[in-house]
Design brief:
Strand order of the largest sheet: 1-4-7-10-14-18-21
Radius of gyration: 15 Å
Order of helices and strands: EEEEEEEEEEEEEEEEEEEEE
Largest sheet: 7 strands, parallel
Shape: globular
Number of helices: 0
Helix content: under 10%
Number of strands: 21
Length: 187
């Protein structure tokens, strides 16, 4: 696995912040990875896509890669006051993957104890394009522009566990063909 941690422990209290700029983190996964873990960071005041993930490895036929493998896991991260420029379509966090086929499958991106607050993006705070996301104990508060989460295309999917959606344009926007198999939410 690859670890990108704030400080030695990856704790939010270590105060690691990506502040300003157009993009904070770009992950292009063209190889098979055992997983990437990003923990304890604050991503704030970007003027474009704060974090972009493109996973092409989901189409590689391999006995090493299982559907349960997580492509990227964000733990204890905060997205605060990012503002995607209105003339560009996109989200604060964008995840794009190849469409599922008999050859491969989409590896999920997981968010654990993450907070998304006061962000603006035309296509939602988290924008999934043929992608799969898992949310656990996350908070979406006062995000504008698009919905808190937007699922685009028939292969997009989100599972949400004990996550809160408060004062957003809307919680989850589902384009035709996308799915929300689990939505066990609570604040």
């Amino acid at each position: 696995p690859i670890y990108l941690k704030c400080g030695e422990t990856g704790a939010l209290s270590n105060n690691c912040t990506f502040d300003g700029g157009e993009k904070h983190l770009n992950l292009e996964l063209y190889e098979i990875y055992a997983g990437i873990y990003v923990s304890g960071f604050t991503f704030q005041r970007s003027t474009g896509v704060s974090v972009k993930i493109y996973d092409e490895s989901s189409f590689i036929e391999s006995s090493l890669l299982r559907p349960s493998d997580i492509a990227v896991t964000f733990i204890d991260c905060i997205w605060l006051e990012n503002k995607h420029l209105p003339q560009q379509k996109g989200g604060i966090v964008e995840v794009s993957q190849h469409i599922k086929s008999s050859v491969g499958f989409n590896r999920p991106v997981m968010f654990v104890r993450c907070v998304f607050s006061n962000n603006y993006a035309p296509s939602g705070t988290i924008f999934l394009n043929s992608a799969v996301a898992i949310l656990k104990f996350c908070e979406f508060i006062r995000n504008r522009g698009g919905w808190a989460i937007e699922l685009q295309s028939k292969a997009s999917e989100v599972s949400s566990y004990n996550s809160c959606f408060e004062n957003n344009v809307g919680p989850i926007y589902i384009y035709p063909g996308s799915t929300v198999p689990v939505a066990a939410n609570g604040c």
